[in-house]
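Anyone opening a protein record will find just a pair of labelled lines. A complete record is shown below as an example.
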Amino acid sequence: MFITSFRLLVITALLTGSANAVPQKILFVGNSYTGQVRSAVTKFFAASAHREIRLEFITPGGRTLKQHSEEAKIVERISGGGWDIVVLQDQSQTPAVFPEKFLSASKELNKVITDSGAKTAYYQTWGRRDGDKQNAERYGTYTKMQDALTKSYTQAAKRDKALLIPVGEVWRALRKRDAQLGRELYKGDGSHPSAKGAYLVACCFYAVLTGSDPLSVKFDGGLPVAQARAIREITRQTVSGRVPADN
């Protein structure tokens, strides 16, 4: 049920956003899952018709949204930056293992964002390649971890009437379609994104934040042309709700 809700939420957000101006200033607040895709995202946007968008990043390693919400300099940067959109990403395990902490911290930061006149976007991350071994009883498989992440991020986005960037669900769809390429989205630690994973994230950010088709961007990110196109296609299909998800 929550996967269906996530799809409806993304599609509604895109349709609503299509009538609005493309954002000119976007701030990304997260940790290494955002920091390690910064280059790919910046290059993807620069190669697009929306190259004029200004992108800025706050990405200290391992940081949770709760820690961000308690850092006065970060709160001030959000509230005083004149952003159009602020993208939020929590520590990779927190929304699954401690959903109440994620929902509380995201609610607090969303208030800062909306009070500043900006819109919140939630960067839904991906399950670890072989599940969360630190919490094996609950999330010991990739699918269980992804289900929990999707549920929490969807809940926050629905609550806050925010954008949802469904990176985790695009990741899931690609794993289902091409198992080998799906494994290659990860670095050797089975957690952080490889160059291919970072490219997928960039495609998702572009599709949701600009409302544009990632296939229109002629940038392969140094990937084999066929793989880059496959990632752009699965992004477009998943965001538009045309790819069935695993349950």
In short: The radius of gyration is 16 Å. The longest helix spans residues 142-160. The longest strand covers residues 25-29. Residues 54 and 76 are 18 Å apart (CA to CA).
